[in-house]
Predict the structure.
Amino acid sequence: MKFLGLSAKDTRFLLIVILLTLATPIILQPFPEGSGLATFNAGYPDLMQRFAIFGIFAIGFNILFGLTGYLSFGHAAFLGIGSYTVVWMYKLLDYNVIWGLPLAVVTSGLFALLIGYISLRRSGIYFSILTLAFAQMSYNLAYSVLTPITNGETGLQVYSNDPQVLISEGETSPHFFGIVMNESAKLNLGDWQFTFNNGYYFTAIIAIVVFYISLRIFRSPFGLMLRAIKTNQTRLNYTGINTRPYTLAAFVISGMYAGLAGGLMAAMDPLAGAERMQWTASGEVVLMTILGGAGTLMGPILGAGFIKYFENIFSKINDQVLHGWFEWMPDGLEDFIIGLSHFFVGKSWHLTLGLLFMLVVIFLPGGLVEGGTRIWHAIRRDRKPKGPDPEHHPEHIPHVAEKEEF
Amino acid sequence: MSKTNITRRGLMKTGAATGAGLALPTIFTSGAAAFTNEPTGSSVKLGFNVPQTGPYAEEGLDELRAYELAVEHLNGMGDGGAMNTFSSKVLEGNGILGKKVEYVTGDTQTKSDAARASAKSMIEKDGVTMITGGSSSGVAIAVQGLAQDAGIIFMAALTHSNDTTGKDRKANGFRYFFNAYMSGAALAPVLKNAYGSDRRAYHLTADYTWGWTQQESIAAATEAIGWETVNNVLTPVGAGDFSSYIAPVLNSGADVLVLNHYGGDMVNSLTQAIQFGLKDKVVNGKQFEIVVPLYSELMAAGAGENIKGVYGSMNWNWQLQDPGTQAFVKSFGEKYGRPPSGSAHTAYVQTLLYADAVTRAGSFNPCAVVEALEGFEFDGLGIGPTLYRAEDHQAFKDVLVMKGAENPTTEYDTLEIVEVTPVEQVMYPPDHPMFGGPEASLGECNDGA
């Protein structure tokens, strides 16, 4: 079955992604309300929206980092620019996200063009440092210098005395032609409660569209060229190919993805803070991509989900929750277990995440996707072709120096 | 790009999937509750949203201790602490309106984004009726706006910027902590007595909202007593090294240095100013002095010896002798083996005040709670009679002027109380220009229905 220019395999892949995305509110809510494990449920609107938004951010980052190998440490700047654009549109026009989102993509694209044009004159570590410098510059500008535009530390938000020239009566939060983002429908099935949120489905549908675009880029001749740049840029240059337009295009595209993600953040929650542009936010997307699997299609999305899950679920496990879990144990043992848990949950969630990251990088250099593939192959080992060399590796030819002819 | 094959079957499938996706949210109707997160069971959940990682983690930890103590007292465990001295007697130690108090915690990381994410999970997932916390004004203002939109109550903890109850005031938000204007108004007379009215002040200011409002407030208050503001230099937040900012102070002709810094920044800038020997200098025939307008116990501990004789202000200190303070310090000390910090006190008081307001209103409905808190006058929670002003939801009470102790005996009494400034002196009209002027408004209370 072929579909929208995708091969049969990719179509199947896309359909699985669509199904998973649409069923997220059910998949992420596996434990009944009121049970001890309900803490681990993640099917509430804010977190689901974050999964989709950071998924978009990571998909875009992967187009640059995964394909060309250029490691940008400044992508959070575009995230912030996207957010500020959307909030400004709320302030000037009205709460319909249709004005802000396309503009967020355009402005972040323009900034990416400017920053990329300068930074891409260097590669490797120098490129990373240049992008980091630009992002930190943007952060500091937003945090203090440009406060009249960004509202500094407090964050840009809508005030009652803003112009909002298109506003209509009773319009108080972001919407898409009347579909209000923070409205949800709740479904109670026995002890389970599922929340279907308008904002989540809005971001999810956009995420599917941009995932499809990234799939097409991966499979296109342009994507092949980007991979060639990652493999050996020098060789391409000697062949007479000017690689800079390609890297610049990849940089701008991933900047636009980041701007879209930032815009969506403001579309879900009408506030833009400067911390969104801090270098830690740029580092986070690098972690997401590496954790999930750089250069793979699904990896960055998995990585984004993983990190956001830890940030929002593990950080909330406090003593009260732990006591609830372990109260059946004898007192001494209970205190010991709770004391031990302190190192991994609650305020120490960074440590758990760090350990997992180390494990993944050491044992699964290809990220979570590699883990998944290994399990898949372990299950289907019998169906692999068993010939002496099914992948036709080239035979080893000794180097001239190795030939002992003299 | 390669060509696109749109087949009839494929198109119909996509159409069906998209249609199902779009229609899904509208199939089910949302349950009609009277207001956001109306507690229906035998318990009620409160959200404690404090920084557990990042630069203000220590303050956040102390706030969390106080919140846990408050929950114990509300549920009738422990000795009841300041509930016994509180002027309002409706709290009986049986939870709130007979419902057991439970709590969830979150990590704000001292970032508005993370704070809002954690607050949203408390509202959407855990169903809290009130969120309290915050260790920076940016975070407090961000979460206050969220609480307003979602229709729950926000009881701000550590936030000192004028904006929280100034231009960013919200109907669903209440602040017990004092603000930068009050610091200036309380400090100025003490500074006049100690250093005279002919002084030239040099300000180093953290370059963000809180720093600016504090600098503006202090400059206005000191200029009113006859001081001259020589210069105001903005320093980046988290600069670490302030030597390049301190060196020019000596040649500026100033004889007082005002450090509008908080947390680690204040510890570094004060330490470096002392190392430069500023306090040993004589300028314009007067001894050079340093002022730190906002003090906290943790900053005092961090700066060590250097704070000796340096003036500043505080919201509350455990060394006060009123019965409310003593009751709170006693039960905090018995549970944790140390005196509480000022931020812990605010956290504790805000929780009790919310519980009390719900009980007096007889409902968890945010609008009823707002009504119960507006214009509420109370006493017995430390630092004397207090008013929650209806116009801006700011608590008005006496303000402490502190000084670094010359001979501290333990690590907890490095600051000593110089003066308790009466509340009349720190009062200001709700439409004061530093608080957003006549345009600032609370808006309507929102119960989310």
